Amino acid sequence: MIITLPNFNPNIIEFGPFAIRWYSLAYILGIVFTFFILKKFNAKSKIMGDKAMEDWFIWAVLGVILGGRLGYVLFYNFGFYSTHPLEILAVWHGGMSFHGGLIGSITSMFLFAKKYKIDFFKLTDVIAIATPIGLFFGRLANFINMELYGRVTNSNFGVIFPNAGEAPRHPSQLYEAVLEGLLPFIILFLLANFTKSLQKRGLISGLFLIFYASARIFVEQFREPDVNLGFIFDHVTMGQMLSVPIMLFGLILIFRAKITIDAETDQN
Fold first, then answer.
1. Which of helix, strand or coil describes residue 79?
2. Which of 128, 160, 201, 250 is most buried by a 10 A CB count?
3. DSSP letter string over 211-257?
4. ∠ CA 39-199-115 to the nearest 5 degrees?
5. Helix (H) or strand (E) segment spanning residue 64
6. Is pLDDT above 70 for 249?
7. Can you tell me the distance from the alpha carbon of 2 to that of 4, in angstroms, rounded to the nearest whole number?
């Protein structure tokens, strides 16, 4: 049975010219959830002091938002923003990139760890556990906003998006919510709590990057390419291209974690 979606309101609450959007709520929920996960593991492992814990939130928000926005500008719509530079600041018009947000987050957490003398990989490993839930909320927001929808399909999974014509399309946002968000969170949370994975600094971070990149490359086969970009070449999308170096970096982190553990074992 083909489902036709109603015209969801992208705004949850409106106050005159101001509004709280579903996508904004997804970012807030993701960062808040990450904060509580970090606080939980910090209570056990004492990754950082109280002052750093208090300041983490603002560093995380700036890293995600600035990176996500600049990533979208540079990777997905540079032609437009190069001629309309003031629009870069108009984040309320939409336009964020996870790949850019990831780069921004890694950069801000590196500087944060350096400032507060924190072990960078111990920090990123815990953040990597919670990040998939932020992705989960973000993809649900994409679905409600009826954006980043899938390609036309004849399968039973097809959904009609009122803003995308009468043909049923893959609800690719939901595929991503599960494969980029819910499933990696469950796996990483179990590994962190029931194995010694967190002792292998960088392992959880590497696994998260590989899970995300693999899921993104796979789901992009069902997702409609960005209108202003289309396929970059031979049915390859920008999302797939940007995910390749992420996967390689994840493999490097896993290899590094193994080498580190092997070296420590030899010393003992």
1. helix
2. 128
3. HHHHHHHHHTTTBPPPTTT--SBTTB-HHHHHHHHHHHHHHHHHHHH
4. 55
5. helix 50-75
6. yes
7. 7
